[in-house]
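[audit] Reproducing an earlier prediction to check determinism. Same input, same settings, fresh worker. If the tokens differ from the archived copy the diff job will pick it up downstream; this log only records the rerun itself.
[audit] input (133 residues):
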Amino acid sequence: MSNIIAVSLEKGGVGKTTTALNLGTGLRQVGENVLLVDLDQQSHLSRWLTFEPDGKPTISELIYQEVSRIRSNNYNDFIRHNDKEDVDYIPANKMLGGIYAILGADGESNTVLSRVFQNDFFAKYDYILFDCP
């Protein structure tokens, strides 16, 4: 089972993204297998990791699939890799801003992320770090 860390604080501009990125790359440098997840609609983490829209699904689609109970057959579709930092990541996009309406359709909306990331596919990561809004 992966260690899950959420970098979260209500105030903006306090270094959440920088902390998530530096922690993730530091863990990777000591040999840990790391997945970074961008949960901020401003997508700063995704941009730092040089994400360019590529037509593949992002965290928004992953959340939507979980809420609608349409499970992905291939979680690899969501994962990108940044060669420079040698980390995997799931990017965010502007669609994440509307995710609250989608989450409202789930009777257990407070467990959506834990349901997604408890999937056996993600067990290959030693650490999953969430960059929160």
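[audit] rerun output stored. Observation attached for the diff report: The first strand starts at residue 3 and ends at 7.
[audit] end
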